[in-house]
Specification:
By secondary structure, the chain is mostly beta strands. Helix content is 0%, strand content 51%. The chain has strands at residues 3-5, 20-23, 26-29, 33-40, 43-46, 51-57, 68-78, 85-98, 102-103, 119-126, 129-139, 145-154, 160-167, 182-192, 201-211, 225-235. The two termini are 27 Å apart.
Length: 250
């Protein structure tokens, strides 16, 4: 199983859409495009099917060696002689934890059964993946690795029940001694769901444990934990862009 490390940088999603505009008879993509996708044969392919060729960059690292990433880039021009392919200037990228969901019958007992609190900052579907920006607590200077899994099952009504599970291995706020320095950790995570969701349209319920206040909003009232459900219609053949504003599922 893949663990998500406490060193993963928590990124505030600076969102901007992929916008087409007319400029001197040319179709030009504006700056600061941010999208998620996979690196295929050394090139980034977005969940919307666009290929980005990195011709220059501001950040360190080699995008061609990654697997699944969220990228921010300036689109410079269409690649000559290609369709849906663009030359880009890479501003930054964040690694995405990409792992398969676990069937309910394989998740009974053991590490996967733990359901420590976790916050979902954003949630969207694209490219066959259920994508999330998640956040959880980490202890300063800890070497603890947090385990993230998506457990799936189907109920008698045909609904897909997805349970996001988090095992902090004791590194929750409530279990720390007074005076312990606590920080926010987390990052992007993607779960491919097309392997077990076969319908063209399906009802999906996502459940997880999170912190809540007595007023029902998000906060650090660590004496309470509540399970939330998020239900939506999913169309297998469609793509959804990254939401153009933060969707906080408290």
């Amino acid at each position: 199983m893949i663990n998500i490390k406490k060193s993963v940088t928590y990124v505030i999603l600076a969102l901007s859409a992929l916008v087409m505009a007319s400029c001197q008879q040319d179709d030009t993509l504006y700056y600061n495009n941010m999208t998620m996708g996979n690196v295929v044969d050394g090139r980034f392919v977005s969940d919307q099917g666009n290929v980005f060729n990195v011709v220059s960059q501001d950040c360190g690292g080699d995008l061609s060696t990654e697997k699944r990433v969220m990228v921010m880039c300036d689109v410079l021009n269409e690649t000559a002689g290609a369709v849906d392919e663009y030359d880009v200037h890479l501003i930054s990228y964040s690694k995405v934890l990409d792992k398969d969901a676990v069937a309910l019958e394989d998740a009974a007992g053991g590490d996967i059964s733990v359901q420590d609190p976790i916050v979902i900052e954003q949630l969207w579907y694209s490219g066959g993946y259920l994508n999330m920006l998640i956040r959880f607590h980490i202890v300063s200077d800890s070497k603890t690795k947090h385990l993230i899994n998506l457990v799936h099952s189907k109920d008698a009504e045909g609904k897909y029940i997805l349970n996001l599970r988090h095992n902090a291995y004791g590194e929750t706020f409530a279990k720390q001694p007074a005076g312990t320095m606590i920080f926010n950790g987390g990052g992007y995570v993607s779960f491919p769901i097309v392997d077990f969701v076969k319908e063209e349209q399906a009802k999906i319920v996502l459940k997880w444990n999170s912190y809540v206040t007595s007023e029902g909003g998000y906060g650090y009232d660590f004496t309470k934990e509540k399970e939330y459900s998020y239900t939506y219609d999913w169309k297998r053949s469609g793509y959804e862009q990254i939401p153009n504003k933060t969707t906080q599922l408290y």
